[in-house]
From TrEMBL, chain A:
Family of this protein: Belongs to the NifD/NifK/NifE/NifN family.
Coiled-coil segments on the chain, per record: none
Root EC class: oxidoreductase
Keyword presence, Acetylation: no
Protein name: Nitrogenase molybdenum-iron protein alpha chain
Start and end residues of each Nitrogenase/oxidoreductase component domain: 60-478
Organism placement in taxonomy: Bacteria, Bacillati, Bacillota, Negativicutes, Selenomonadales
Classification via SUPFAM superfamilies: Helical backbone' metal receptor
Pfam families: Oxidored_nitro
A molecular-function term among this protein's GO annotations: nitrogenase activity
UniProt keyword Nucleus present: no
From TrEMBL, chain B:
Domain Nitrogenase/oxidoreductase component span(s) in chain numbering: 12-441
EC number: 1.18.6.1
Transmembrane segments: none
Species whose genome carries this gene: Sporomusa termitida
One Gene Ontology term of the molecular function aspect: nitrogenase activity
Name the UniProt record assigns to this protein: Nitrogenase iron-iron protein beta chain
Top EC category: oxidoreductase
Keyword Oxidoreductase among record annotations: yes
Pfam families: Oxidored_nitro
Amino acid sequence: MSKLTEDLTYDYLSAEAAPTREERIEATYAFGGSCTGLKQGMGQGCTKYNSRKFAQGGGCQLSLALGIVRSFQNVVVVIHGPLGCASNNLGVAGYSKTFRVLKHKPVTDNIWLHTNLDENDVIAGGIDKLREAILYAEQEYRPDAIVVGNSCVPGIIGDDIDSLIDELDGQLSARVVPVHCEGFKSKFVATGYDSAYHGVLKKLVDPIKKYDRTAPEDVDGATADAAERYLHSKTVNLLNVGSTSYGDEVELSRLLKALGLNVRVMPLYASIEEISRIGEAALNISICATHDDYLIGHLKERFGTEYVIDTLPIGIKNTNQWLRVIAKFFKLEDEVEKLIAIENEQLEAALEPFKKVLKGKTVFVGGGETRIFTTAEFYQSLGMKVLGLKPHNFDRFAVPMIDDIDDQEAVIDVAPGQPSEELVVLNRLRPDLYVGHTGANAWVTKLGIPTTPLFGQSFNYMGYSGAFELARKAVRRLQNTAFTKKIGANVALPFRPEWYESNPFDNIKEAQQG
Amino acid sequence: MGTFIERAKSTCALGGAIVTISSLPRAIPIVHASGGCATMLAGTYSQASGYKGSGYCSGHMTPTSNVVEKDIVFGGEERLEEQITHTIKIIDGDLYFVVTGCQVEIIGDDAVGVTRRFKDGKYPVLAANTPGFIGNGFKGYDVVLSTLAAEFIEPKAIKAEKTVNILGIMPGQDVFFRGNIKGIQRLLKKLGIKANTFFGDGETIEKIRNYGDAALTIVFSDKYGIDTAKVFEEKHNIPYITVDLPIGETRTEAFLYKIGKQLGIEPAAINELIAEEKREYYSYLERFLDIYSDIDLQRYAIVSADINYAFSLTSFLADDLGWVPHLVVINEEVDDISKKKYELKFNQLTSEAKPKVIFEQHAGQLLNHIRKSWKHNTNEKYYDALSPAFLVGSSLEGSTAQKIGAAFLPVSFPVTNRAVLNKGYTGYLGGLSLAEDLFSALVSNR
């Protein structure tokens, strides 16, 4: 369905765990240079095995995987590992609750258990504790699903969680889902998404009950269930990600509904029943390839469900492009052009006052690859100059997006986290605005550079209304930078002076395996 | 033999070690573990401890070896050495401290051995084994401070009579740690006592190096910091005492008398300080009198907290505010003897009612314990309900408070629905702050 996924296959479910992204797609995790350099490097594949002399925390697959599954309604998550693994649950429990409120879902607490592996378990194995924990989860909470997340320790000592889950299958009212994500297995934290979906696809997704795949052109005449069949032929899954706000979901649904489509937003924050029926759709629509190609690629192979995986609908150009690809599938080319024309005209008029403020200002964007390129492209379209980008990792899904950056000599630092490299670059470039992923913005503020978050739970970023909000937000941000200036002048970053003078990309070891 | 735990209110030993190191002045943690541990564990305390943030070098800034499968198979010591070398070059710190995760401990990497290669360098490099499977966060706190006491702090033959080391208030795990330390420091200063705090304002690594001259260690805990206090005792010949976190009048008075006796301070001086503090304390507490009495703000108190806060909070609510202590649930594991000893503390409470004290590791069991603690309403015409009630706990207890119709204030870790900067609850002033927060929770909907 998409050039981005050409030659990829998804027949992995017979394996216990999803393959790593190192194995599955060409990707890089360490690169420093220009847009042009990255494009050429990706072409030659010499970026593939880079690593670092000085490293900072890159993120944990388990944490990302649980980010998906803990959002499901009425689930209990069992973390098979010591207490620290995914202990950030303590920090995000309230955040998830707020998301549930904002998304109009039942407001329930996140429930999780740790098998609390200790020294004895490292020697004797922890399967018995895992069994107890699963049974406790069932008895105390009667969840629809119990998700077992596997950490480094059971991975190394060889606990066989799948056998236990097979043993419990059918004995519990909850479905038990294994999620394998030992942190040391992959440098690409996005592998955690594949781990989560591997388990979801294995245990939660049911065969299609009512119709096989229904394409709009197949529906004809006045058969008894024609109306339902018609609805089915227009039903799409809008696949949300951890960073989509309710505002984003409303805006994207509004646009798809304007094309006459019946929209189901999932899988995040969906119920297990909704997820079990994910196969019953005419089309799967991705908004972030990094997040869900594994899921929709598999659904295509298993149920024949077509998918759209193209761009992230942030900014005008990319929202237009996203809608066109979807419309093409439903043969709604004329309709979509009408919609785009109306929306673009209204939005362009609304953006005029903001453009006057932003014209000539400079911006640097860091975070997930597709999100930062589309956000940068949008700010560029408002007259800002993109000085640089920092994707957490870089792979085939974002390669075409490089061309959208006007200045092909703009800096790219491919780095999960790694503020040490990014801050040296920023200290030289001194952009007027930094747009960054959670965890990065505080450090940039200490340089005295104003920041705005790349995503957030109560803010709309996607679609046309999201574009308006992005512009509005940048203008507001630049209206008062007093706090940033004061922090920059008074709070120190932990670097030696020589580090600011050095070439931060000397830190990257090129093409060394592992 | 441990058990599984529902919603443990802690991270692991490595998490505790990272938050401890990064709360020391200009100390740099170097995490020898897989890619996720450093950021994720630092993030736990950064967020869930009243948004205390990453500080000087934590969170995403944390240096880490990020070992991968290859290192697990072939060993990660070379990678660690490379990481230490470059960390010293890039990160500006006064102390570098290597701590280890589960993966490298299982394969047997010798992190302590690797750091010995740096012993003649310009900067001190220490190491400790802190895999998550050896215990929860407090364990990491004790391992790090014990290592400092044993290997970094210089032995001093002569002790400064009026200098004490302060332990037991763990950064992050105590959401108000800086304010709490400040509150204690302030009182001690009034008695002419200098406090070595590790994490308080104005500390430096150089000062910490000289903590060996203290005459006494005060551990504000029955659990956290005891191992470190023992190292100070054995290695530096500094005796220790344990005291309860002094929150409000009753507990602060007890604390002052205890250390006064220990340090040989004239009782008159202690009495004078208490009288002075109390005058101020009651001149402010007086402000609540009208509203407390006019709308009856006495409450049944339910406390769900860690072992440091549980008794001190309950004592403040019962002994200072005159609330009825009903139930205390401590989400922590201690041995049976310590449990018994801890339970006996509650006999000191001045209220007629004594609370039921339960040690329960599963945070989610609070609601069940509350229900068990009070007779059900079997549709009686006249039913004596557990109402009005107030639940003081962590942010995880918010929905339980709602279910039982109690007012609610999160104080004990994790706290995600409050932002904490310099606030502390220790001393008389801290008691006022806590009273302010409790009563604000009761009138916040007006």
